[in-house]
Amino acid sequence: MSLVVQKYGGSSVANADRIRNVASRIARGRDAGNDTVVVVSAMGDTTDDLISLAHQLAERPDEREMDVLLSTGEIVSSTLLAMTLKAMGHNAVSLTGLQAGIRTDTQYSRARITSIDPERILQEIGKGNAVIVAGFQGVNSQMDTTTLGRGGSDTTAVALAICLGASVCEIYTDVEGVFSADPRIVPEAMKVDTIGYEEMLELATYGASVMAPRAVELGQAYGVPIRVASSSSDSVGTLICKEGSMELRNKVSGIAHDTNVAKIMVIGVPDKPGIAREVFEPLARANISVDTIVQNAGIDNITDITFTVARTDVVKALSIVEPVGRSIGAARVTSDESLSKVSIVGTGMQNTPGYAARMFRALAEEDINIHLITTSEIRITCIIQEERVKDAVRALHKAFEVEFRQKQ
Amino acid sequence: MSLVVQKYGGSSVANADRIRNVASRIARGRDAGNDTVVVVSAMGDTTDDLISLAHQLAERPDEREMDVLLSTGEIVSSTLLAMTLKAMGHNAVSLTGLQAGIRTDTQYSRARITSIDPERILQEIGKGNAVIVAGFQGVNSQMDTTTLGRGGSDTTAVALAICLGASVCEIYTDVEGVFSADPRIVPEAMKVDTIGYEEMLELATYGASVMAPRAVELGQAYGVPIRVASSSSDSVGTLICKEGSMELRNKVSGIAHDTNVAKIMVIGVPDKPGIAREVFEPLARANISVDTIVQNAGIDNITDITFTVARTDVVKALSIVEPVGRSIGAARVTSDESLSKVSIVGTGMQNTPGYAARMFRALAEEDINIHLITTSEIRITCIIQEERVKDAVRALHKAFEVEFRQKQ
Question: Mean pLDDT score of chain B, rounded to an integer?
């Protein structure tokens, strides 16, 4: 008998019929003899509805209150799922993040899990219960509710899988698995059967939107295999795990894109040590994630600093960077919110020359202008105009198609 | 500086505008220098919506899960109210039942408060916060959420007022206070300025539906004055407190009615000791409240037992009483769900002859048939056909109008 942790996303529990479907899946797993811990997200649009209610009452809702408010969405779906299982004749119990022993730091709206005390979960498993845990939430040292930020339920699931020594963490969602590109843009995109954590991380971070990067990272750190699959079909999905062989790694596993990109430029800054720090330290303090950073060492000791942030952070970022720009003598600060990222992702690209060149050629042949380029060990990313992003994804998928076929 | 506990019902926080209105009232109280602890119910129809969602998934939803589910409604409204106050520039914090230290027994859906540990509330008051407590909920010894049953938020408010030594517990609702009869039925009904706990209890139990009887009882036991008033006006409402003078008590303070009444008759039972026990013990075990009980000692050692229950309990009560009826040799068990109660309530009636006679005459003059009669020290109740209840209330209000005038 092994222990499996499953996570069902908001679209999988969006209404009574879908909750019944999820309950049936869980019931089948239990009939097969597995102990089951299930993590659920809030039903469908619940979280957005609660956010909009809060914004009717406060321009900037208090973060502590907001976290308590949003945590109710997952509590509702967890109780509904537990009572459905019980009505089907299965033992089940719902637990809040507090009851599941999920402790976090005190950073509201993006708390980090600091520890899990699994006592209550183990006790309920011992009683033969399927344990349904409200995802996305924990409590801080004051026993105040915190939420884990975007994709928080994925993080809850992987953290529980680690803590409980689960054989696998299954993430059920509305897609069949990880694809070589977004199938809505590239109809001939292929499902990937297995993928390494790092590649998945690059794909997820760069917009494959299948599961939260934080959760993949956590799975990687503790070596827990994660299966991503559809909650409405029986296909095996994609298994995220350690790559089997060190040398026989894939080259390009997929094309990722992300349209939530904005560029901020601090132009004409006198070039002296400490400039970058003066720009980026206050952004970090304000909890704004800065992605790509490019500094062009200019002539005459004048330099430009360009970086990208999520579009949702642009207003806040500008309110911080504009006064900094004045204080460091920048000529001006500008922003551009019409950008997107497109990336090719694959382990082993770095040791095989020519991938970057093939990527730039494919974009050039489509007349797509590249604003910024960044690379990691397993990824090459170009920042381009948003209006060309679909063309770019299709062109790149075509250019690297042969690689995907090798992989399958 | 005194401490005031306020409670706002579901209609007072039904939408963003009303939440803002409540926040303004709380803010005014704080500007006047009072420490404030506020108890809120769930917004408008939230609880009913959650119940209907649960019934889509389970015919008889698990009670533990149901309590966790329903408790989210009050958590939502408490956070929204706290963030509204903060947005207005007032210090405020929401607390769940768990955080407010409200401990209960383990009886889901109708838990009783066993103790309150006010540590966190006092700590937040010490920080200068208006403390907004989610009503209707507590936790049992397992730290599982329980709910307090109908009118549970009133009970939360009075219990907190007692525990915190508040000068008054203010219950804000959608009516102006306690009236001599339901103003929707008797337009000339008068608001009562002060009323004793017992009279209020009879009025509340018998359907004045202004506040939960349990909460009045609790206030009486600990001598906490309770003010019932409208959340949308500045009128003083009705103060429920110890009667000022022992002898100068009111006679009739009001006419109450309740349409949630069903009668069950166990007919033709061999009359021997222990019969009543055999009928009522299993009902008590099933947690069904039995109201009026009448046993007609018959001829030939045959007796009929008649009692009333809430209409919502009829199906469950019959499923218990029918087999009992067979086992004790009853001729048959019948039920009638089309009944209502109408009562006159007032301290001192018992020592002044003629009240019952005046009541029966008033009903007779309207050709209203009386099914059952019961009395308490301060109440005379007749059970009549539901279709005549409005006529009965109007006739009785008219018959005792002179008493109300004396009272004012």
Answer: 89
Count of other CB atoms within 10 angstroms of residue B372: 19
Nearest C-alpha of chain A: how many angstroms from B44? 14
Residue A51: closest CA among chain B residues belongs to which residue? B80
Q: Are A164 and A3 in contact (CB under 8 A)?
A: yes
Provide the pairing of β-strand A35-40 with A92-95: unpaired
pLDDT of A212 above 80: yes
Task: Calculate the dihedral angle through the C-alpha atoms of B64, B68, B70, B72, rounding to the nearest 10 degrees.
Answer: 180
Single pTM value for the model: 0.81
Q: Give the pair of three-digit tokens for residue B269.
A: 């039972």
Name which of B6-20, B62-76, B312-326, B354-368 the model is least confident about: B354-368
The segment with the largest mean pLDDT, out of A239-253, B196-210, B349-363, is B349-363
Rg (CA), chain A: 23
* Cα–Cα separations (whole angstroms), residue B114 to B147, B148, B390: 13, 11, 40
Question: Rounded to whole angstroms, how far apart are CA atoms A230 and A174?
Answer: 5
Q: Above pLDDT 70, what percent of chain B? A: 93
CB B26 within 8 A of CB B53: no
Q: What is the CA radius of gyration of chain B?
A: 23
Q: Where residue B192 falls among pLDDT bands split at 50, 70, 90? A: confident
Beta-carbon neighbour count of residue A149 at 10 Å? 16
Of A57, A68, A144, the CB nearest to B16: A57
* Chain B residue whose CA is closest to A20: B57
Residues A83, B58: C-beta atoms closer than 8 Å: yes
ipTM over 0.85? The verdict is no
Provide the pLDDT for residue B253. Answer: 82
DSSP states along B327-376: HTT-SEEEEEEEEEEEEEE-TTSTTSTTHHHHHHHHHHHTTPPPSEEEEE
The candidate with the shortest Cα–Cα distance to B104, out of B63, B159, B36, B154, is B159
Are A76 and B72 inside 8 Å of each other by CB? yes
B65 closest CB neighbour out of A53, A72, A82? A82
Q: How many residues are present in chain B?
A: 408
* pLDDT for A288 beyond 90: no
Q: B195 φ, ψ to 5°?
A: -150, 145
pLDDT tens-digit readout, B195-241: 889 888 887 666 556 788 889 989 999 999 999 999 988 889 999 99
The minimal CB distance from B79 to the residues A69, A78, A87 is found for A69
Residue of A nearest to B120 (CA): A142
Q: Determine which of A149-163, B125-139, B177-191, B215-229 has the lowest per-residue pLDDT on average.
A: B177-191
**Nearest residue of chain A to residue B15 (CA atoms):** A53
pLDDT tens-digit profile of A6-19?
Answer: 999 999 999 999 99
DSSP assignment of B285-335 equals HTTPPEEEEEEE--STTEEEEEEEE-GGGHHHHHHHHHHHHHHTT-SEEEE
When CB atoms are compared, the residue of A75, A80, A82 closest to B53 is: A80
Tell me whether residues A66 and B82 touch, CB distance under 8 A: no
Query: What does the alpha-carbon distance between residue B253 and residue A173 come to, in Å, rounded to a whole number?
Result: 62
* Cα of B12 to nearest chain A Cα, Å: 15
Please tell me the predicted confidence (pLDDT) of residue B373. 84
* Distance separating alpha carbons of residues B288 and B243, to the nearest angstrom: 32
- Bridging pattern class, strands A238-240 and A194-195: parallel
Contact check, Cβ <8 Å, B82/A76: no
Binary contact (B99, A144; C-beta < 8 A): yes
CA distance B25 to chain A (A): 15
